[in-house]
Queue: 2 jobs
Job 1
Amino acid sequence: MRKLQIKDKQQLISTIDKNRIFILFGVIFLFMALFAPRFMNVFNLTTIMRTMSLNATVAIGFTLILVIGQLDLSIGTIITFAAVVGLGLKESVGFGLSVPLAVAAGGVVGLINGILVAKAKINSFIVTLGMMTVLQGTIYTITGGNSISLSTPDAFAISDWLAEMFFPLLTPRVLITIILVILASFGMRRTRIGRNFYMVGGNSQTAWLAGIDTDRYTIAAFVISGLTAAVGGILFAMESAAATLNMGNSSLMYVISATIIGGTSMAGGKGGVFKTFVAVLTLEVLYNGIILFGLGNEVKIFLAGVILAAVILYEAYTSYRREKVLGQRPELMKELERDREAAAASSS
Amino acid sequence: MLNTTVLEMTKVSKAFPGTLAVDNVDFSVEVGEIHALCGENGAGKSTLMKIIAGSYNDYTGHVYISGKEVDLHTPSKSKSFGIEMIYQELSLAYPLSIAENVLAGRMPMKSRKKNGKGLFIDKDKMVRETRRCLKMVGLDHLDPMLPIEDISQHEGQLVEIAKALGNNPCVLVMDEPTSALSREDVKRLFTIMRNLKNRGISIIYISHHLPEIFEVADRITVLRDGKKIATREKADITSEELVQMMIGHSVNEFYSHADHSINEIRLSVDNLTRNGFFHKVSFQARKGEVLGLGGLSGAGRSELARVLCGLDSRDSGTVQIDGKEVKIRNMGQALRKGIAYLTENRKTEGLALRLNLGENILAGIIPQLTRTGIYNSRRGFGILSKLVKELSIYPPDPLRIVNNLSGGNQQKVLLAKWMASEPKVLILDEPTRGVDIGAKMIIHQSIERLAQEGHTILLISSDLPELVALSNRILIMRQGHIIREMQKSECTEESVLLAANGEGV
Amino acid sequence: MTEQKTQHEHIVQPEMQLDARAVKLNIFSKFLHTLGIYGIAGLFVIFGIVLQVFGVINGFLSVQNMLNIVDAVALLGIVAVGMAFVTYSGHYADLSAPTTMALTGIVCVQMLRYGFLPAILISLAVGISVGLLNAVAIGKFKANPIIWTLAVSYVTLGVIRLVWVNKQIYPDVMASSQRASDLFDAIYRLRFFGKIALPVIILIILIIIYTLLMTRTQFGAQLKITGAARKAAKFSGINVERIIGAAFLVSAVSAAIGGLVVTSLSRVGAWYNGAGYDFRAVTAIVIGGMTLAGGRGSIIGVVGGVLIIGLMNNIMTLLGIGTFSQDMIRGAIFIIVVGVSAKSLRSLGRDDA
Amino acid sequence: MKKLVKLLFVGLMLLTAAGLVFAGGEAEEAASGAVEGNLEASLAIDVSVLTAADGQPLIKLGGQTRPVPERPADPSALPETDPLHWWDMEFAGWNSVKTNIPESPKDGAIGKRIVMIVHGDHPWTTACSNGAQKVADAYDIDLKIMSPNWDLAVQNQMIDQAINERPDMILLIPLDAKTAPQQARKINRAGVPLILFNTLPSAEAMDYAIAWTGPDDFGQFRILSRLWADALGKEGGVAYVQHAPGGSPYFARCFGPISELSEYAPEITVLDKQAPGFEADKTMQLVSDWLTRFGDELKGICAADDSAQALGIFEALSKAGREDVIVVAAGNSKVGMDLVKDGKLYAITYQTAEGDGALAVKTAADWFNGLEIEPVRYLPQHMITVEDVEDFYPPQW
């Protein structure tokens, strides 16, 4: 009986641990729903969804990058790059061609990152840091320092269409994001290719020995990261009907924070797209509530930092604890308990 | 038994920058045989096997499988010919589940058609298939969805074996599969191997453990310096001949039986307990004594050592050195009190592989080399050159990166690190694991000399001849308790083994 | 005994190993290996001289220009040599450096009302306490350095902005006396011999102290082993928690000093001071030959990396290359230099994988 | 256990649904109940007596407009040195075709609700908000200020939220000239009156706003450049330290002077222009390198920022012992004005931060009061030199 209880308690803790992002989301959402003025209405919730769209899309690829145990610091500039390419080419080739080109551009940047990481074996932190600088320069050069806007009726039409709520909480852009999240989440969990990414991140040596082409998966992860960043960027730019030269800059730190808060570990092999998505939603609900309370960005930055720090500390502390008890022998623990009981019995 | 050759390699070579690791080797494996591969560390065994497993794409020579010439340039290619390899170091993905590790690269997919390629993973089938594989190695009590990081190390080793068996291989390569296994598990493994053999599966078996080889192998091939020396039937060769072929000349004796004088008590441990790891351990060790710690893997010996040197915390009990109680909270304090610990995991815990020989040897005595706040590694040069010479570390170049040394020399570097710190009590945890015979002898002689000089040695070893030969007394641990103390006179390989298994008187 | 010894010498055979000297290297990585980062710096100088000889640019080879380069990178150097300890310890980078700089600066300006020296001491203490947060979480609990320092930088930024309500404060307004304000102003502007600025002197002092610290002290020697193999260091009796913590403290000290310098330069205490110095410092450190894996590189190398960045900017501006193209070139050179040096280390067998 | 989590989730969903039904209807009613006599009371309020923190009048209307030349057929075909090349940017809004602009209620500004969305946190923004608040207080307007911290996605969200609150007016500083059209259009389509201010948006955005108010960057810099050219003796080489790319200041504070001087002082040659960002040390290295490269040729520097950039410039100049280089810059930060007072900076433009916010609110009030609003309202144009710099102390930020 006793043993069962201990097991249940441990199970409870591990279940809570695994689902902590959902609980965090629930708590923050409930708090805002109860106390934040004008929070619970269709319009505001749709606003949250709309704002979340960019970072949620970008975070799909970034989660994949963390799952394979790498880092991609260039996602922020890829967002901008895709936006600039997509909108800049629209005049000459139309959206029908410029949007795929923009997405492809993101993919190409990811491909270069991936090849440098997988084949040239340079640390991804360095490759993507360098790529960030290169891309920023490229963006400024091809635009001549000029943001791009599309103030034509067809551009406005697409922009309006993307932003229009056709169902509570859903706009086409949000729907695209959600579809991508569902596809990626399902693919990562249920397909062999998806599981292989985890294998590569969990132990690339094992993966390679199991006949998984780790280089190809590493490159693929960077390409997907580039693609999702580009998709996020171009959709965002189309809805804004403009591409500014730093529109993606704030996404980098945001996406890193959200992915970590969502429970994906920097060490690789752990985490999931859906959890990251919920983490993005959580942050977005929090930020939205802060604005509704009339509080400033300083509160927002501070709270985001505290939550992130708490999550990291919690995770570090659990693995610190786990290391302490790793290898404990159950029969000896039982023996200890028997001794204690005996001692208690004899003293009473 | 059909006497057909399943795998044949002719004139196979593999060069690393600056050296020929495998030099023009011919090697063949018959259907349904257990073929042992012997040689010292660096003889080229592992490289040869990695060629078979498809780890290199730039070897030269020819490989034939069932008479057909093939290229084994990637692991997946080798797998497609039914070659499976079990690696010496665990190659499991720790955050992932057992099932995913066992079925790595061949996850079952849902599909309407039979054997058709589906898109999604069939989870039920995955669990079923994993259970089947685990059952072969006696791990069917484990939940296949448990992540590897939640199971113990020797279970991990068995999972590794289950993984290879699950692929229905026709050639199975085992690179020191028993080094982390307990005696029971080794027995079970040998049974599995014989069963496989009877089913016509060929096994290539690499081990340093000669008794094991003579127990299971049908044929033995010896490599030395990358060249093949000979292939013999087991019946045609004796242990001494085999050793001679491996090291190139004959040795008269493995171990000397020095008699240690018994002095005053140096280390006294009383009721030491770490909850869940070992309970109420008490013993005493004298100056100049080699105290052996026998037992099966997982009996709590390494855990005891870790607590003694402050790497883990204790829950109760006392430790005295030279009659004074010491409270040790970390390894730095342990060193100051005169306790040093040579870890069993050379590559992860023992050495900084990317640093050079000198830096590694001096790593433990940095405080001693620091005077008035100034650290000068040159002060350690005397100790360094003395130790390098004493242990015949090759090459004797203090600037050589340790990663580029052979396993035996790495182990010598590790021992040198602790000899440099001149400890009162030196705990050696598997000091000769995975080490070639030459290095092993040098290490043994150093241990004896240390004892003669008055150091107290706690020797943890699963190598029974070594344990029996070197120890003055042996304490047997089993499941976290010391269950017996054996004097030198009553120690034989057999008696120790029986005691460790909880049998015998 | 002696008999046995001779026997050992027999047993020791020429073993298989990678012979470093036989490894074929391409010319560039050989060059990089022998001369290190100063080889590249030398290449840049030669390039500059050639350009000047052919009249493409002028004024490159002058004392004043070289001083300008040093002046311009002194601040980056101060931050980078400190953060180098973090990289050396195998913990990538200290992303909290920029906000540590801002915090130190704004606290110092705020405290100028109590006089110059108290302000400096208090603010340095505050800056270093940020490092203490990193030291505990990363040293003791093994939190991931990148995201932990990122979180700390968020928290610090939040604190600065909450306390000073998004305002910036001025030393001459806050100071109790003109003297305090002038002294604060002089942190950046004081010049020795009319040429060499105080930050350069600070940098030189830091280089000397840090080099000694890294190569000549117990801490440095133990840090190297900790950086190269944390577990092995722990098993060698090194208190890795304290060593790693100390590395983050050194980084915080440097960032705090850098914060004072940058605040003195811009004459305002504000939350955005120091922005961008995290990635810039990493760039310099990595170009300077320190690998992210830890335990390899030197302070002198990092200074070389800093100088290369200065030289690169100088030559590109002298050539009249625009800001935008400069970014592209900088990023590309960064990847190439690091890639080649990583490759040469690998082929020398000095780095795994 | 999993069930529990699922239950929690389902509960949340239900709660959300309930909330949607509950609040699903329209957001709050527009506030302003027209009070009798409100208009007269509003019109009677005189905000011209208000002063900014620097002692200058907060709002100085009239005399700030300047002649708008004819738009050339294709401005971009002209060279960059031609002033008319910049027509679309410089005179954005003057020939806008107003679309779907709401009628003024003409019931007075008192008691109205205004949401002001700025671009991000900065001491400048704080001063700007203070100015806006002063005018709002004078009119008893309920002013709510939101700051998106320089993030476009957040600014878009704030626009949505502001629309959701149904205020009487939205005041907006677009994060970028080019994002303004769609943002303005969105507010316009929601039927909320809009005034854009500070950042000069693309011309299209002006169609959807009642007006734009703010500094005349091009105009200011044309005046500044003439002053500068006179000091330079209308000859010699000059260089430009540019604003960060991605907005009108990047062009106005560099090509404004260049195009103006191409006519006014054609002997002045442009040696280089670079955008090192707003960091003193980077600017210092840039200018040091310029001094090495151009030597005595370099006679003047025009900077887009009078604090960090200007400090970097003077550090470089003092190191090289070049007291003769004439430097002008934009803005009147404390640092910049100190430099003017010390006789280092030759001239800076007067960019009143408080006035910027104040003018926007004042224009809104005028609209509520039913007054005629010109499409573009400029802040006063003034150059601060050593002669009158004392009048602008204490600095606004």
Job 2
Amino acid sequence: MSPETLLTCIVFLPAVWAIPLVLFDAKAKEAMRYWGVLGTALTFALTLQLLMQFDSSKSGMQFKFDTPWIANWNVFFSLGVDGISLPLVVLTGFVCLLSMLASWSIDKNVKGYLILFLILETGMMGVFLSLDFFLFYVFWEVMLLPMYFLIGIWGGPRREYAAIKFFLYTLAGSVLMLIAMLMFYFNSDRSFDLLELAKIASGTSAGRSHVYGMSMQVAAFIMLFIGFAIKLPSFPFHTWLPDAHVEAPTPISMILAGVLLKMGGYGIIRIAFPLCPYGAQYAAYFLAALGVFSIIYGAFAAMAQTDFKRLVAYSSVSHMGYVLLGIAVWKIVDGKTVGREYWEMGLNAAMFQMIAHGISSTGMFFMVGVLYDRVHHRDINKFGGIAQVMPHYAALAAVIFFAGLGLPGLCGFVGEVFSVLACWNFSPLLAIVAASGVILTAGYILWTMQRVYLGPEYKGPHPEALVEMNSRELAIGYTLVATAILFGVLPHLLFDPMHGSIQALTQSLASSYETLYGAIHTSQLP
Amino acid sequence: MIEQLLFYTFAILTCGGAVAVVATQNVVRMAFWLVVSLGSVAALFFLLHADFLGAAQLLIYVGGTVVLLVFGVMLTASGPYTTIKTSPAEGIIGGAVGLMLLMVLVSSIGSVDWGAISGRLPASPESPFTADSIREAHAEESLVNAGSTKAKTDLAAVQQQGRTVRQLGLSFLGLRPDRNLKEGGANGLAPGYFLPFEIVSVHLLVVLIGAAYLARAKRRAVSEDRVSLD
Amino acid sequence: MGEVGLNAYLMVGAVLFVCGVVCMATKRNGIGVLMGVELVLNGANVNFVAFSRYTSLGLDGQTVALFVIVLAAAEAAVALAIALNFYNNHLTIDVDRGNELQG
Amino acid sequence: MPETGDILMFLLTVAWLLPLAGFVVEIYWLCFSHRLNKGAAYCAVACIGIGFLCSLSALLYWGNDTHWAALSEPDHHGHAASHDTGHGDAAHGAGGHDHDAHAGDADQHSHDQASEHADAPAKKYYSGTYYELARFGGLRVSLDWYIDSLTLVMFTMVTFIATCIHIFAIGYMHDELTEEYEDHEVHLHNGGHFSRPGRFHRFFAYLSLFSFSMLGIVLSGNIFQVFIFWELVGLSSYLLIGFYIERKSASTAANKAFIMNRVGDFGFLIGMMILWTSFGTFQFGDRTEGAHTEAGLFTMVRGHDGKLDVSEDGKQVYLQDAHGHRAEKNGQPLTISYMLLVAAGLGVFAGSIGKSAQFPLQTWLPDAMEGPTPVSALVHSATMVAAGVYLAARFYPVFTPEVLLGIAYIGCITLFIAATIALVVTDIKRVLAYSTISQLGYMMLAIGVAGWGAALFHLVTHAFFKSLMFLCSGSVIAGCHHVQDMSRMGGLRHKMKITAYTMLVGVIAIAGLAIPGTSIGLSGFYSKDAIVASALAYSELNPGHILLFIAPLVTAGITSFYMFRLWFLTFAGTPRDAHVYENCHENPSVMTTPLLVLAVLAAGCAWGGEGGPLYRLIVDSETVPAAARVASVGAAKVILPSHQGHESDVHHVHSTAGMLALVSAIIGMTLAYLLYVKKTIDPNQIRQQFSGVYDFLVDKWRFDSLYDAMFVAPVHIISAWCVSFDKGVLDPILHSAANLTVLTSKWDRAFDETFVDGLVNLVGTVTYNVGNSLKVIQTGRLRQYVMWIAVGVIVLFGALFTTIPK
């Protein structure tokens, strides 16, 4: 399959796959679910095909192609993949397949649910694959609406509130992103091409000799950052997340945690940093501090929760803090990047953490969902003794929760530890505070496991409903556990494809900062 | 001279008949005046060298349509001499408006230089009518194109004499002996009236069926009930 | 008396036309209205044939006039049927009774 | 012929990975087998047993390869080398006498630089890489192996003890072989007893996982890998402590253990960050790739001569490259701030504190006794908790004297506190637990006072006798049907002969008793002797730190007292609880055989003392700074004693220290005898007289409540704050923003409705009115319409005529 076809198929297959769903009888729920599973499975297979064809020894964009879309505005339908987006694309396919499998518990208006689900997948794939800012923005919005409806229609009792909260937050973010996008559009030669914009920012563009100005970079970076930080989510933009998670149905929570949050990190790495290196460096300490604060804050907040899903949601805030920390550890002394290898390590760790979190938190939400499907409540204090009645489930859940805790040998460990290790070079203080997160994380996860899984007996309502997982759920659980172990034991599987791209990114950012720094300092001298 | 005389005679008859139709209150008399008026129009057609048309006018209008109207009068009126009076005010207003309309029309007719317009029209009866074009367009039609240059003069003569039946018939079959097919951008399409002719034929058939359907006897009460129910 | 020209025929046509219009406007009898219509059509026909004779319209004018005559006959048939229906519904042929057009 | 290092690596890797394979197999066994099957146990025993054989053969191969050079020292060649760790007796005979062996033979594999620098002492290790986890530019993280004699000894010791304990556990866990295991300690809501399927398989699966992780620590070739397995043993420990998941106390203890360890790991992580950032590597040993040799941590800090290369102002330490020169990067010498090095050392040591339950993180270990007794024997006495000591020893070259001083004091405080608490505890396992903490304190102290060999020596001997004692206590508990309180026992030696006397061996060993006047004693005597001697030497060189000698000396007496108290209370005297006594019985041979084997080793493994084979083997791995006298340059100004050879500082004081320790131990034993057997003094009276102290000790020095107040409660308060910040500040901000928007839109609506709509409505109204007034025109009369048409035409034409010019 040619690259163009492959990428286009990955993006649009789910949406196209949703069209025949219209023809299904509304009562043929099973058939529609299988249809949906088939669609997501095919998409996942395509992403794997992409993985096969991907050449991890190259650092640049691969399979890149452009087609004019809105020629008057210089908008291109431009897709491509590199080491940064590839893992996320595969992750998206993976998580979507699993959440689709977990969607059997959805019984209300299955057709609409599946259609929205598939459109959502298209939006997510598009965000990760598009190389045109405008296209990126469009997909970003495409993803927003299905999510709004999925939470707002299939959610829990306070779904409208949660959905609107989610919608408003994200929309506020995208508005800021839109402004920044237009800033770049009018400050370049009317270009939306991300690669070209990044080249201009680094002063290596063939067409332009001057880079974006300092104040513009700072302003644009702040706007872009807020837009992405909302998605990440980082303190103080995180309050939509617990509500959205608590109200969203289980598979949507899985996608929300597994993929949507990654877009924040991806956006920062793909757009905010390359387009405004000066702004990024300007705010680097703030970013890292914010990440560290999110780690600690999320952990503390998680500890005080009694709602199981809310706890997991706050743990996401905490875990995604490592991503922000890893991205931001860019140390500059006198205009020169110091310890670029450590920064590279931080970026790698951030990427790894995103994937790892995609696996572990997807798993955690799935595990919570399995319980919720049975007993229809999430009050941690009313659980207990689950391991006695559902030993198989409890074992899988334990592995997933330990992955979230950051146990070596499981995926959560590498990202956390590497980002913290990389941080000392940047700021010892932040590193120490971030490292203290390991204690808090262990605290709340173990305490939760004790209250939910351990103990002699289940104390809450519907004890008779606690039956062992069925084969479909077991398949999801085992897949997640296997992936968690795989990446925990062999992290280089993930680092290898990312490595080249991230190295190139850090190099170009460092050099572009140097260029700009040099320009500023020579002009200030007499 | 005789033509002028005839024209004025029939013109007065025509106009007078029409005015009489307007003025008369009795339907049957109106029908009579209508016959007068339409018959005079037929005469005017003859004067205009449209023999066939005049004949058709007489046959269809005077012989057919008016009889139809008389039938209508008979079928609808409770008696043949019933009159439905128009109020005098209406008559005055109608007359005034009619006069004004007439003035408008007359003034328009007078203000137009018809000769100039006639010159601008694309084809004239004297337009070239070559054997080539005949041969090209109607190779098999030997009926009309027997003589080449002769046909042209024949045609003019025929038109002068008002014997247009054959030409009209041809044009209804899609042939135009009076037109140069190479001009006017006909693009090879037959500029005759074959298609309209067919359409009119079908139209007539439909009208006949439709008229028969509409005019059939119906029960009266049902429709009123239905209306009230709505 | 001068030469009979196009204008003279047009005048006759105009008179016929105006008479038809006035007839339509003033007659309360449905059949009278129909007669007005016939007059209007004839006025038009006179014009057509006159143009056929005096301008380059040629055979077209006559053909159109012929069509008009035919269609007028058809119209008369249908109109008569309508009049009969009207009469059946309103028990009169007075068009003022039929005010359904008011809506 | 493969190289020695590869063979050793292969053997140890097999020994290391077998338990992992066992774990996987047992987990699956759990799913597919019925619960009455002992297959899992046999599988686990087979895995660890083969692992032991592999380790042993590795040790023997290594010995053969080096011609047992390690066992011989010019001034100690009189000792026969017929025992290595005391169990492979006949396996090697002549090797130990081969004085001509060249230590350098061992270095062929990876240390060419050793021959380049003839003055540098040979470094006797093999190392290599399994695979890379990640690589960032020049930085890389990998899974490595690092094998020296210490690794080999640890491997053999761990696998051997683990094998014994696995076998013992087959008997101990026998009552789990059921579908309906009734747990009498758990009470359900409805008052009934809790019953559950047995967890025989699961137990052995966890044990295998633990063995794998523990061996991983020992084999690790870099500090990051140590951290990985550090956490994994923490996990195994968590799972095993919380084995009885239905017991709240067990799961709480498991959580406590894990979190306490994480607190230590927090420090560990900081230490690692410093090392990683300053050195750019985690490797212990040097790594050779082709012609290029990359220096490991030890080389970078110590070079080849074992000295810190400190700058003149004492604030910077120059790093060394693999060739013994100052490392440079871009022409600048690589340095690390001295304080940072101290911080790194303390950080790594913090990990040890957590794992080895040292003050101030000692409180988890007694609680960890909630696990089944074989777990306590293996994990919480012999191996895992000793991993902290192992790490501190392994990392010794990176520690500056200041760090060592800290280690010494931590060990000193710990050994005293734990011993005092052990005096008043009546739970048989908890006495042993406190004793373990105390003994680990001894080891830490030894490392702190430069008694590197003594610490590891004690580590190994302690592993034997403490696992023996734990197994004995397990045997007692099993025999007495899960009674653990010593106050309900007594006189059990009549019914449980093997258990009682093997236990006595252990007690004598830990008490450090020997025949006065000779230096013949059980293993504990030698190792404790070595530690006390090191401490004395240290305090002589640094008179300010005399406490570091006094405390272990006194505690030696206390140790002796509480251990004999335990034995007397349990086995001697008359039964205090007839019911318990009646029902108790000796255990089957599957449990007693391991006791006997371990008793033999506990008695004899240290045979020969500091001239014996075990000590020699360990000390063979000793790094230079541990052996020589080192003076500190930092703030602490301490001098570390040397202890190799007859002229060393330690040797001078050895006999004095040994005497004092022995006297102390004998006093302790006598006191215990008087109190609990002769009843000359009534313990209850003492208890009443010193009730304040007694309560304080029973409350474990009130650490738990202190930590609750200091950490647990604040954490909960802060987390409540965080949540209320979300709910009380962030959400209201959002809500008020939303409300403001709604308000604005309300205004907007009002404006719309009154003004904009008003205009539109006006247009509409006007149109309507006009239309309404025009309505009359539409009469529905046909004739009027015709009239209007005519009028319209007229008007139109009139308009045209008037406007269009002629």
